[in-house]
Design a protein that fits this description.
Elements lengths: L2 H13 L2 H17 L1 E2 L6 E2 L5 H4 L4 E8 L2 H10 L4 E5 L17 H10 L4 E4 L5 H14 L4 E4 L15 H9 L2 E2 L2
Parallel strand pairs: 3-4, 3-5, 5-6
Antiparallel strand pairs: 1-2, 6-7
Helix pairs in contact: 4-7
Bound molecules: zinc ion.
Zinc ion binds next to α3.
Length: 179
Amino acid sequence: MGPKTAQRLALHILRRSEPEVEALARALVEAKKQVGLCKTCFHLSAQPVCEICRNKNRDNNIICVVSDSRDVIALEKTREYRGKYHVLGGVISPMDGIGPEQLYIQPLVKRVSQEKVKEVIMAIAPSVEGETTTLYVGKLLKPFTKVTRIAFGLPMGGDLEYADEVTLARALEGRRELD
Ligand code: ZN
């Protein structure tokens, strides 16, 4: 939650009666209890397996790898992508003590090596950490499948969620094989 959202929430709470705020607090606690991670792709999900993974109309042959659940939501908004996802839960960042073992990289390698996946699209926002993550994960997956990455044109250090839908759709469209 950013400072602006926090401020809006605080104002909203101030204007409400105490029972209303209590009801909101209960709803938040309930949401916290219900939301977990999909055991296949690690996207936010109220069920053990998320809606996207369960959707039979989606292409199993292609997996788009993102750092965060917010990126899944951003990519879904483009309505261009019909494959599956895999959420890493962050990017490799030694400065912050985040190594590959803190991310959901092993489950991804297992998934790609066991299922017949034809293509993995690396869709990590461009930054030094993002680049390290893309190359590291790409190397692990190459023995099993074709690995591509979304086209740049996304601003360096920018998050996927802040890119507009047209830019994201183009980045996906213009993906190229990872060398
Ligand atoms: Zn899932």
